[in-house]
Amino acid sequence: NNHKSDSRGALIVLEGLDRSGKTLQSRKLISYLEGLSYSVESWRFPDRNTGVGQMISSYLANKSELDDHAIHLLFSANRWEKRSLMENKLRSGTTLIVDRYSFSGVAFSSAKGLDIEWCKAPEMGLLAPDLVLYLDIPPEKAAERGGYGGERYEQLEFQRKVARSYQILHDASWKTIDACLPIEDVEKQLQEVVLDCVTTCQKGKPLSQLWS
Ligand code: TMP
Which domain of life is it from (predicted)? Predict the structure, then answer.
Protein backbone atom coordinates (compact mmCIF):
# COMPACT_ATOMS: atom_id res chain seq x y z
CA ASN A 1 0.00 0.00 0.00
CA ASN A 2 1.46 3.29 -1.14
CA HIS A 3 -0.15 5.84 1.19
CA LYS A 4 -0.03 9.55 0.71
CA SER A 5 0.53 11.27 4.03
CA ASP A 6 -3.14 12.28 4.35
CA SER A 7 -4.41 8.88 3.28
CA ARG A 8 -6.14 7.06 6.13
CA GLY A 9 -8.44 4.25 7.14
CA ALA A 10 -12.19 4.70 7.41
CA LEU A 11 -14.25 4.80 10.60
CA ILE A 12 -17.32 2.72 9.85
CA VAL A 13 -20.01 2.18 12.46
CA LEU A 14 -22.82 -0.36 12.55
CA GLU A 15 -25.88 0.55 14.55
CA GLY A 16 -29.23 -1.08 15.19
CA LEU A 17 -31.38 -2.81 17.77
CA ASP A 18 -30.16 -5.85 19.66
CA ARG A 19 -30.41 -8.90 17.32
CA SER A 20 -30.40 -6.80 14.13
CA GLY A 21 -27.38 -8.70 12.78
CA LYS A 22 -24.61 -6.15 13.41
CA THR A 23 -22.09 -8.58 14.79
CA LEU A 24 -22.51 -11.12 11.98
CA GLN A 25 -22.36 -8.41 9.31
CA SER A 26 -19.29 -6.75 10.80
CA ARG A 27 -17.51 -10.10 10.71
CA LYS A 28 -18.47 -10.47 7.05
CA LEU A 29 -17.26 -6.96 6.26
CA ILE A 30 -13.91 -7.69 7.86
CA SER A 31 -13.31 -10.77 5.71
CA TYR A 32 -14.52 -8.92 2.62
CA LEU A 33 -12.05 -6.05 3.15
CA GLU A 34 -9.24 -8.41 4.15
CA GLY A 35 -9.89 -10.29 0.91
CA LEU A 36 -9.24 -7.02 -0.93
CA SER A 37 -5.98 -6.62 1.04
CA TYR A 38 -7.12 -3.67 3.13
CA SER A 39 -5.79 -3.23 6.63
CA VAL A 40 -8.90 -3.56 8.80
CA GLU A 41 -9.85 -4.23 12.43
CA SER A 42 -13.05 -5.22 14.14
CA TRP A 43 -13.97 -3.07 17.17
CA ARG A 44 -17.01 -3.00 19.41
CA PHE A 45 -18.52 -0.85 22.13
CA PRO A 46 -18.87 -1.40 24.94
CA ASP A 47 -15.27 -2.66 25.01
CA ARG A 48 -15.64 -4.96 28.00
CA ASN A 49 -11.88 -5.54 28.37
CA THR A 50 -11.08 -2.30 30.20
CA GLY A 51 -11.81 -1.47 33.84
CA VAL A 52 -14.68 0.79 32.80
CA GLY A 53 -15.85 -1.95 30.42
CA GLN A 54 -16.03 -4.43 33.28
CA MET A 55 -18.26 -2.07 35.26
CA ILE A 56 -20.53 -1.76 32.21
CA SER A 57 -20.57 -5.51 31.72
CA SER A 58 -21.59 -6.15 35.29
CA TYR A 59 -24.37 -3.55 34.98
CA LEU A 60 -25.67 -5.15 31.77
CA ALA A 61 -25.67 -8.57 33.42
CA ASN A 62 -27.82 -7.09 36.25
CA LYS A 63 -25.04 -7.79 38.72
CA SER A 64 -24.83 -4.14 39.76
CA GLU A 65 -27.12 -1.13 39.85
CA LEU A 66 -26.14 2.32 38.64
CA ASP A 67 -27.93 5.62 38.20
CA ASP A 68 -29.01 6.09 34.54
CA HIS A 69 -26.76 9.15 34.18
CA ALA A 70 -23.78 7.36 35.72
CA ILE A 71 -23.98 4.38 33.36
CA HIS A 72 -24.42 6.74 30.42
CA LEU A 73 -21.18 8.49 31.32
CA LEU A 74 -19.39 5.16 31.74
CA PHE A 75 -20.39 4.10 28.22
CA SER A 76 -19.06 7.43 26.99
CA ALA A 77 -15.83 7.13 29.03
CA ASN A 78 -15.37 3.70 27.48
CA ARG A 79 -15.24 5.38 24.06
CA TRP A 80 -13.00 8.20 25.29
CA GLU A 81 -10.44 5.76 26.66
CA LYS A 82 -10.12 4.29 23.14
CA ARG A 83 -10.12 7.59 21.26
CA SER A 84 -6.39 8.13 20.80
CA LEU A 85 -5.79 4.52 19.76
CA MET A 86 -8.66 4.88 17.32
CA GLU A 87 -7.15 8.01 15.78
CA ASN A 88 -3.70 6.38 15.53
CA LYS A 89 -5.12 3.34 13.77
CA LEU A 90 -7.06 5.44 11.28
CA ARG A 91 -4.09 7.70 10.53
CA SER A 92 -1.85 4.70 10.02
CA GLY A 93 -4.24 3.47 7.33
CA THR A 94 -6.31 0.89 9.20
CA THR A 95 -10.04 0.84 8.61
CA LEU A 96 -12.15 0.18 11.71
CA ILE A 97 -15.48 -1.61 11.56
CA VAL A 98 -17.14 -0.65 14.83
CA ASP A 99 -20.10 -2.56 16.27
CA ARG A 100 -22.04 0.24 18.10
CA TYR A 101 -20.80 3.75 18.94
CA SER A 102 -22.11 7.04 20.33
CA PHE A 103 -25.48 6.57 18.64
CA SER A 104 -26.15 3.50 20.78
CA GLY A 105 -25.12 5.57 23.77
CA VAL A 106 -27.66 8.28 23.01
CA ALA A 107 -30.42 5.97 21.73
CA PHE A 108 -30.38 3.63 24.74
CA SER A 109 -30.07 6.31 27.42
CA SER A 110 -32.66 8.63 25.90
CA ALA A 111 -35.01 5.63 25.63
CA LYS A 112 -34.92 5.62 29.44
CA GLY A 113 -36.12 9.20 29.43
CA LEU A 114 -32.85 11.12 29.73
CA ASP A 115 -32.71 14.38 27.80
CA ILE A 116 -31.26 13.80 24.35
CA GLU A 117 -29.02 16.89 24.36
CA TRP A 118 -27.65 15.89 27.76
CA CYS A 119 -26.93 12.44 26.33
CA LYS A 120 -25.08 13.85 23.33
CA ALA A 121 -22.85 16.25 25.28
CA PRO A 122 -20.20 13.79 26.57
CA GLU A 123 -19.78 12.40 23.04
CA MET A 124 -18.64 15.78 21.70
CA GLY A 125 -15.06 15.59 20.45
CA LEU A 126 -15.01 11.87 19.79
CA LEU A 127 -14.15 11.01 16.21
CA ALA A 128 -17.09 11.24 13.82
CA PRO A 129 -17.72 8.11 11.77
CA ASP A 130 -17.19 8.32 8.03
CA LEU A 131 -20.18 6.07 7.58
CA VAL A 132 -23.03 4.95 9.83
CA LEU A 133 -24.78 1.78 8.70
CA TYR A 134 -28.17 1.35 10.31
CA LEU A 135 -29.48 -2.20 10.27
CA ASP A 136 -33.20 -1.56 10.31
CA ILE A 137 -35.45 -4.20 11.87
CA PRO A 138 -38.85 -3.93 13.60
CA PRO A 139 -38.45 -4.66 17.33
CA GLU A 140 -40.95 -7.53 17.06
CA LYS A 141 -38.93 -9.18 14.29
CA ALA A 142 -35.70 -8.82 16.27
CA ALA A 143 -37.36 -10.41 19.30
CA GLU A 144 -38.30 -13.44 17.19
CA ARG A 145 -34.67 -14.07 16.22
CA GLY A 146 -33.66 -16.85 18.55
CA GLY A 147 -34.61 -14.88 21.63
CA TYR A 148 -32.63 -12.34 23.58
CA GLY A 149 -29.66 -13.27 25.74
CA GLY A 150 -31.18 -11.91 28.91
CA GLU A 151 -29.05 -8.80 29.35
CA ARG A 152 -30.60 -5.72 30.87
CA TYR A 153 -31.91 -4.01 27.71
CA GLU A 154 -33.00 -7.10 25.82
CA GLN A 155 -36.74 -6.68 26.24
CA LEU A 156 -39.27 -5.93 23.55
CA GLU A 157 -40.92 -2.94 25.22
CA PHE A 158 -37.57 -1.23 25.80
CA GLN A 159 -36.30 -2.05 22.30
CA ARG A 160 -39.42 -0.29 20.91
CA LYS A 161 -38.34 2.86 22.73
CA VAL A 162 -34.77 2.49 21.47
CA ALA A 163 -36.08 2.20 17.90
CA ARG A 164 -37.91 5.50 18.36
CA SER A 165 -34.75 7.15 19.71
CA TYR A 166 -32.74 5.91 16.74
CA GLN A 167 -35.36 7.47 14.45
CA ILE A 168 -34.79 10.84 16.09
CA LEU A 169 -31.00 10.55 15.81
CA HIS A 170 -31.08 9.30 12.24
CA ASP A 171 -29.91 11.84 9.67
CA ALA A 172 -29.41 11.93 5.91
CA SER A 173 -25.79 10.81 6.17
CA TRP A 174 -26.80 7.41 7.59
CA LYS A 175 -27.17 4.47 5.28
CA THR A 176 -30.19 2.40 6.26
CA ILE A 177 -30.28 -1.25 5.29
CA ASP A 178 -33.35 -3.45 5.62
CA ALA A 179 -32.08 -6.02 8.11
CA CYS A 180 -35.05 -8.34 7.39
CA LEU A 181 -33.61 -9.16 3.96
CA PRO A 182 -31.67 -12.42 3.55
CA ILE A 183 -28.19 -12.27 5.08
CA GLU A 184 -26.48 -12.33 1.66
CA ASP A 185 -28.53 -9.37 0.40
CA VAL A 186 -27.68 -7.28 3.45
CA GLU A 187 -24.04 -8.29 2.98
CA LYS A 188 -24.00 -7.18 -0.68
CA GLN A 189 -25.55 -3.80 0.09
CA LEU A 190 -23.08 -3.19 2.90
CA GLN A 191 -20.07 -4.14 0.76
CA GLU A 192 -20.95 -1.56 -1.88
CA VAL A 193 -21.22 1.45 0.44
CA VAL A 194 -18.31 0.37 2.59
CA LEU A 195 -15.94 0.04 -0.34
CA ASP A 196 -16.95 3.48 -1.55
CA CYS A 197 -16.28 4.95 1.91
CA VAL A 198 -12.89 3.23 2.28
CA THR A 199 -11.82 4.59 -1.09
CA THR A 200 -12.84 8.15 -0.20
CA CYS A 201 -10.87 8.03 3.06
CA GLN A 202 -7.86 6.58 1.28
CA LYS A 203 -7.90 9.66 -0.94
CA GLY A 204 -7.51 11.83 2.16
CA LYS A 205 -10.96 12.84 3.40
CA PRO A 206 -10.26 14.79 6.63
CA LEU A 207 -11.18 13.32 10.01
CA SER A 208 -13.92 15.17 11.84
CA GLN A 209 -15.48 15.13 15.30
CA LEU A 210 -18.92 14.56 16.78
CA TRP A 211 -21.41 16.03 16.37
CA SER A 212 -20.92 17.22 12.81
P1 TMP B 1 -23.71 -5.39 22.90
O2 TMP B 1 -24.81 -6.40 23.07
O3 TMP B 1 -23.58 -4.90 21.49
O4 TMP B 1 -22.40 -5.80 23.52
O5 TMP B 1 -24.17 -4.09 23.71
C6 TMP B 1 -24.55 -4.21 25.03
C7 TMP B 1 -25.74 -3.34 25.36
O8 TMP B 1 -25.32 -2.02 25.72
C9 TMP B 1 -26.75 -3.18 24.24
O10 TMP B 1 -28.05 -3.47 24.76
C11 TMP B 1 -26.67 -1.73 23.86
C12 TMP B 1 -26.16 -1.05 25.11
N13 TMP B 1 -25.35 0.16 24.90
C14 TMP B 1 -25.69 1.33 25.58
O15 TMP B 1 -26.69 1.38 26.29
N16 TMP B 1 -24.90 2.44 25.43
C17 TMP B 1 -23.77 2.43 24.65
O18 TMP B 1 -23.06 3.46 24.55
C19 TMP B 1 -23.42 1.22 23.97
C20 TMP B 1 -22.18 1.17 23.11
C21 TMP B 1 -24.24 0.11 24.12
Answer: Eukaryota
Q: Which of 10, 44, 37 is nearest to 128 (CA)?
A: 10
CA distances, 131 to each of 38, 72, 105 (Å): 17, 23, 17
- Asked if the interface predicted TM-score (ipTM) of this complex is over 0.90, the answer is yes
Instruction: Provide the domain count of the chain.
Output: 1
Do 15 and 134 touch, CB atoms closer than 8 A? yes
Is 112 part of a structural domain of the chain? yes
Domain that holds residue 187: 11-202
104 Cβ below 6 A of ligand 1: yes
Mean pLDDT of 131-157: 92
Mean pLDDT, residues 75-95 taken together? 98
Q: Is the pLDDT of residue 2 over 90?
A: no
The pLDDT tens digits for 44-82 are 999 999 999 999 999 999 999 999 999 999 999 999 999
Strand partners, 133: 14, 175
Whether residue 119 is contained in a domain is answered as yes
Out of 18, 108, 156, give the residue to mutate to test ligand 1, the one with the largest number of ligand atoms within 8 Å of its CB: 108
With respect to residue 33, please indicate whether it lies within any of the assigned structural domains.
yes
Residue 147 pLDDT exceeds 80? no
Alpha carbons within 13 A on the beta-carbon side of 152:
16
pLDDT of residue 146: 76
Does 187 map to a domain? Answer: yes
The answer, yes or no, to whether any atom of ligand 1 lies below 6 A from the CB of 75, is yes
Tell me the C-alpha distance between 211 and 201, whole Å. 19
